[in-house]
Amino acid sequence: MPATVIVGAQWGDEGKGKIVDLLAQHSDVVCRYQGGPNAGHTIVVGEETYKIRALPSGIVRGKPCVIGNGCVVDPEVLIGELDEFERRGYSTAEVYVSGNAHLIMPWHVAIDGASERRLGKLAIGTTRRGIGPCYADKAMRLGIRVQDILDPKILRQKIEVALAEKNLWLERVYESEPFDLETVAAQYESYAQRLRPYVADTSLLVEDALRNGKVVLFEGAQATLLDLDHGTYPFVTSSNPVAANAATGVGIGPNRIDRVIGVAKAYVTRVGEGPFPTEIPQPQQGIVRELGHEYGTVTGRERRCGWLDLVALRYAVRVNGIDQLALTKLDVLSAFAELPVCTRYRLRDGSETADFPAHQSDFHAARPVYETLPGWEEPLSSCATMDDLPAAARRYVEFVERARDVEVILIGTGADREHVLTRYGLEAITRAA
Ligand code: IMP
């Protein structure tokens, strides 16, 4: 006790990495339960910036880190991060990777790119890191798992079996170059040497930690509206970021999870294609993008920016069981005299709803209905507690809380670790369940 899931409540990039980093200092273990190097968590510590794609954000606090079975692992990216952290003086001795996590293979990356090219105007806008094809092979039972690197013979055999099919697809369907068995086998055998010490029974490790009263964080990647089941399909990622999957993605029972903290930006962003009701018209959208540095960590793409969408947030509270919220980047809104907040959608038949539409066509056609709140138009950098917030900023936060009866316990007011306001203090928040 306690086991806390940190989950993105929008379309990703809410600043989960920073929240996990803050709570990690009073935690004992930090786990990732899904996704792969499509994630990009940025943590700023003084002059140092850490951009993490594979490792849980807890690594920056020197905490034991788990990459759960629900993740997909690109060995080159993971090894790059392990090397980088070691170079910067961190120990990686307590990084544990589930043997049941799946490996991203070079054909997954090639097929991700080729399939997006083929889709043309209908493309999903993936990060092209091979995520979708890797999870597809997992479901097809053609995947290669981390534990396969423990046995060179099995590894080679599995690469051979997979390549026999993948090369056909690449050559005949996508008109792309095939992969050479010897080259791939040699490459993955060399990764195997480096990764072998990190492979562990992470389900047992996390269960033991919880039984021994340790504080465990489960760090979601991507977010609710990118969830394969509950997001804006097909413009979603290929795993389940929602909180319930923390149990499956690490290998513990759902009753082991004590609490879910949702992370939402004070506005909304989305990268890639797909409907986005509160997208801000230009030139205002550009102002938010510049002030919030809204460019993808992994791809460098411009993020689309929108006003806060409380319909989507209420939905995220529902499908994750969010108990408390962290509201990030509130400082970015200091630039605006008025702040539209979407409280309802107007549907095609003219009716209004505060519930996220269950049918894709209703969502595609939904128009935002805004309530406009006054802005505060002053920087938040000197606020030390929530009580120091300008009255209009406090009202904005209370408006969010009332939308679904969820308490805001953390507020982000800048990129740095110090720029965060808490309701009860970080240690109390982390240890409360
Ligand atoms: P994939 O996860 O690379 O397959 O991409 C599928 C969709 O999820 C695309 O719209 C991506 O832009 C989006 N996506 C994936 N990872 C992230 C993330 O970490 N932040 C925001 N969007 C993401």
3D structure, described in words:
The protein has 433 residues and is of the alpha/beta class. The chain has two domains: 3-86 and 202-431, Alpha-Beta Complex (Adenylosuccinate Synthetase, Chain A, domain 3); 102-198, Adenylosuccinate Synthetase, subunit A, domain 2, CATH 1.10.300.10. Helices cover 33% and strands 19% of the residues. The protein has helices at residues 16-24, 75-87, 106-119, 131-140, 152-173, 181-195, 202-211, 245-250, 284-292, 310-320, 360-365, 391-404, 426-431, and strands at 3-8, 29-32, 41-45, 48-52, 65-67, 72-73, 95-98, 102-103, 199-200, 216-219, 259-265, 268-270, 304-306, 324-328, 338-346, 352-353, 367-374, 407-412, 420-422. The strands form five sheets. Strands 9-7-5-2-10-1-11-14-18-19 form a ten-stranded mixed sheet, with helices on both faces. Strand 15 (338-346) and strand 16 form a beta hairpin. The longest helix has 22 residues, at 152-173. It is globular and about 65 Å long. Inosinic acid binds next to helix 4.
What's the short version?
This protein is of the alpha/beta class and 433 residues long.
User: What is Rg?
Assistant: 22 Å
Distance between the termini: 7 Å
Note the quaternary state here: single chain
Structural class comes to alpha/beta
Mean pLDDT: 94
Let me know the CATH homologous superfamily of the largest domain.
Adenylosuccinate Synthetase, subunit A, domain 3
Please name the CATH topology of the largest domain.
Adenylosuccinate Synthetase, Chain A, domain 3
Each distinct ligand: inosinic acid
Total individual domains: 2
Helical percentage: 25-40%
Low-confidence stretches: none
Counted beta strands = 19
Q: Describe the sheet with the most strands.
A: 10 strands, mixed
User: What count of helical segments does DSSP give?
Assistant: 13
Measured by DSSP, the beta-strand proportion falls in 15-25%
